[in-house]
Amino acid sequence: MKLKKGVAIPLKILAWVASVLAGLLILVFVGEKLFFASFFFGGAKIAMRTPGTWSNYVQQGFDRLEDGTFVVSAYDKGDENAALYLIKDGKETLCQLKNADGTPYLSHAGGVTHYKSWVYVATDNHTDKAGDEYCTHENCDTNLDMFLLSDVLDGDGKATKVDSIIVPNRLAYASVYGDLLYTGAFHRAGSKYITPESHHLTTPAGDENTALMMVYKLDENTGKPVSATPEYCYSTISNVQGMCITGDKDIVLSTSWGLGISHLYQYELDNATKGTITLGGESVDVYYLDSACLEKTLSTPPMAEELVWLDGRVYILSESASMKYLFGKLMSGNHIYSYPMA
Question: Which structural domain, as residue segments, surrounds residue 42?
Answer without folding.
Answer: 38-340
